[in-house]
Amino acid sequence: MDNNKIVEVFDKLSPIVADMVGGPVYLVKVSGPRWSYVAGHIPSDLPFVEPQKVLLFDDWAVLYYPEAARKVLPEQVRQMFLDVREDENDARRDP
Length: 95
Fold this sequence. Notes:
The model has no long low-confidence stretch (mean pLDDT 85). Helices cover 41% and strands 25% of the residues. It is built from two helices and four strands, in the order αββββα.
């Protein structure tokens, strides 16, 4: 999946994920130990919780800050992105 497509999928899914987790969601580019912000709404105040890191592909990840009462597993978030990717691949194969 190319960079523009990853950002497009993130833009589509990030509001859904933000509602699920009750906090901000960010798309980041991974380059070794460095995780660099790419997309996502930046609130004026970040929650006082540890961010959850979800590696999507070798060089892309999602970072989110869940509300304390919400238990959303990183694998659930990862699977949402992978499902969209599979759906788009299937759509390209079907005429």
